[in-house]
Amino acid sequence: MSAFARFPPRLQQAIVSRLGWTSLRPVQELASHAILDGKNAIVLAPTAGGKTEAAMFPALANLVEHEPEGVGVLYIAPIKALLNNQEDRLGTYAEMVGLRRFVWHGDVTDHAKRKFVREPGAILMTTPESLEVMLVSPRSPVGRLFSDLRLVVIDEVHALSGTDRGAHLMSVIERLAPTSRNDLQRIGLSATVGNPHQIVDWIAGSSKREKVVIDPPKVPSKREIHVGLHESVSGLAGEAAARAVNKKSLFFCQSRALTESVADRMRGRGMDVYVHHSSVSLEERRVAEDRFARGQNACIVCTSTLELGIDVGDLDLVFQANAPSSVSSFLQRMGRTGRRQGIAANTTFLCDDPEAALQAVALIELAREGWVERVVDQRRCWPVLVQQIFAMSLQYGAISAERCWQQLSRVPDFRAISRDEFNALIDHLKHDDFLFESGGLLSMGQKAERTFGRKNFLELYAVFSSPLLYRVVTTGGRDLGSLEQDFVDRLVPHLSSFLLGGRAWTVEHVAHDDRVVVVRDAPGGMKPSWGGFIPQLLGFEISQKIKSLLTGTASYPYADSRTSKHIDEMRAELGELLCRPGRAVQLDGSTARWWTFAGGRINHTLKYGFDAACGWKVVADNFQLRIEGDGVNHENVGIAIGQMASEAFWQSPEVRHAVLARLPGYRLSKFQDCLPEKYALEVVENYLLDVAGTIRWLSASKPQ
Question: What predicted TM-score, i.e. pTM, was given to this entire model?
Answer without folding.
Answer: 0.89
